[in-house]
Amino acid sequence: MGWVLFFLLPSLLGLLVFIAFPVISSLVLSFHEWDLLSPARFVGLENFKEIISSNDFWSALGHTLYFIAGYLPSVIAISLGVAVLLNQRLRGLSIYRAAFFVPVVSAWVAVALLWKWILNPRFGLLNYALALIGIEGPAWLFDPASAMPAVILTSVWKDTGFLTVMFLAGLQGIPTAYYEAASIDGANAWHRFWRVTLPLLSPTVFFAMVISLINSFQVFDQIWIMTSGGPAGATTVLVERIVKNAFSYSRMGYASALSWMLFLIIFGVTFVQMRAQKKWVVYD
Amino acid sequence: MTREALNNGSSTPLRRVKRATLYVAVVTLSLVMIIPLLWMLSTSLKGDQYVLRMPPQFLPSPATFSSYKQLVELLPIGRMFLNSLFVALATTVGQLLTGSMAAYAFSRMRFRGSGVLFLIYLGTLMIPFQVTITPLFVLMRVFGWINTYQAIILPGVFTAFGTFLLRQFFMTIPRELEEAAFIDGASHWTIFWRIILPLSKPALATLGVFAFMASWNAYLWPLFVLNNTTMMTLPVGLASLHGRYLTRWNLVMAGSVITIIPMLIVYLLAQKHFVRGVALTGLKQ
């Protein structure tokens, strides 16, 4: 028993202090009002009631869903496409893979600043390139209508490499015999993709969707750097609301309640995904 | 289509055209990924008067390191680099050590409640960091840890993810080796340190590179516990630079280059561990 304690104690203590205790405190805090200065005051479900009835929360949730609706299908489809291309026994695979993976290992702060510069309406590279083909680019981060698309574009660019490498590993696990059999049966490339690749890759695609969805509900770094929720509140998202309430307005209880709402939403959506997977994910 | 055509791309003119199209597509897509990063580098090497020039200069002429020199004067970049390095290394070592010790207990020792405890470990993985951030911040204030290394390192060390990953790996190591060592009177620590860990180098390396990367690039948490410039890690310092010199893009891009170059070097050195780590994530359902 002494040895068990010896091996478990460091991680157990750490998890207690840095995860279990904060989780419980956060739950308790969510029923209180506390500005860090005066003593905390118990308010029951007031924080949650305020959240449900506030425009602030619903518009942040709306923007988060807008982000997800733009980001998730694009990043999955693009990285799946790139992975299929890279899986064609190309020469120099590790070079292409590195090209796609460099944004993945780069800090979000650096990537967000880079794209803020590229998306600059007057001096940015993107609008310059668009002008060359006769398109007048939007004001991107300065226009409420184009700010979220700009954030989505940046996020897809950064994360494509991660999913590409994941899908590539999945593709390499598909035995070539399946493709040979399909070819002999006269299937063309398009059919092979839909009838062989996609079903056999569906567990990996499912997993990619689950983790990408969880991560995109927690979108924050790029928003904070690129727009801080603006312009005119067009890109406020859930985590940005949590951070602003906790650290700018010192509303610790309200921020905690918001974070539990986020948790419930993520939990619910993941649960639904798990249930729905039977309909389309093929396990052999 | 015949079997040969499938195996050998260069047999017919049609196949050759398809092959060429494929390469053009892949190279174009790779350029889409790389050009923004080259633009970062190019901007960082421009003098102030060339940054906002239209049409943009792709190759800075004259190229100058002046924005890097200014950056060193405006921010304690060397110190920030060391902060980042120390924090990332300490987080990595801490995560590997505590994670592998717990993984050893869960995979090699029998004790009451181990199944339930392991489930609780896994359960902590479901909780988003945002749920703990508010009380964690208060805790750091109570400890008097604002603007300290331990405030950024410790919350990053304790994640059940490492324990889970390493336990899965330890389970695949055959027990014969340790049984022989036990008979020779070796302790659990000797077996852990001399047998299990050396056999687990690939898993430790994979976990290690991801722990290092997460810590090196972290922004949300360090942003709130560090407000003293000399304690800041590179991402936090870089963001504060942008806040102060909003339109000095050569300066901001120089800071970005400095922030990502060390991670690029780590990637180039440990490429296979990154690739394996991502693949593992995808295959583990």
Provide a descriptive summary of the structure in words.
The complex is a heterodimer of chains A (284) and B (285). Chain A is an all-alpha fold. Chain A has a domain at 47-104 and 151-280: MetI-like (MetI-like fold, Orthogonal Bundle), CATH 1.10.3720.10. Chain A has 12 helices and 2 strands, in the order H-E-E-H-H-H-H-H-H-H-H-H-H-H. In chain A, strands 1-2 form a two-stranded antiparallel sheet. The longest helix of chain A has 32 residues, at 55-86. The two termini of chain A are 42 Å apart. The mean pLDDT of chain A is 93. Chain B is mainly alpha-helical and 285 residues long. Chain B has 2 domains: 3-67, no CATH class; 69-283, MetI-like fold. Chain B is built from 16 helices and no strands. Chain B has helices spanning 3-7, 13-44, 48-51, 66-74, 77-108, 114-124, 129-143, 149-157, 160-171, 176-183, 188-199, 201-217, 220-225, 234-244, 249-269, 271-283. Chain B is globular, with a radius of gyration of 25 Å. Chain B starts with a helix and ends with a helix. The interface between A and B is large, with 96 and 96 residues.
List the helices and strands and how they pair.
The complex is a heterodimer of chains A (284) and B (285).
Chain A: H1 2-29, E1 32-33, E2 41-42, H2 46-53, H3 55-86, H4 93-105, H5 108-118, H6 125-132, H7 144-172, H8 176-184, H9 189-217, H10 221-226, H11 238-248, H12 252-280
Antiparallel strand pairs in A: 1-2
Helix pairs in contact in A: 1-12, 3-7, 3-9, 4-7, 7-9, 9-12, 11-12
Chain B: H1 3-7, H2 13-44, H3 48-51, H4 66-74, H5 77-108, H6 114-124, H7 129-143, H8 149-157, H9 160-171, H10 176-183, H11 188-199, H12 201-217, H13 220-225, H14 234-244, H15 249-269, H16 271-283
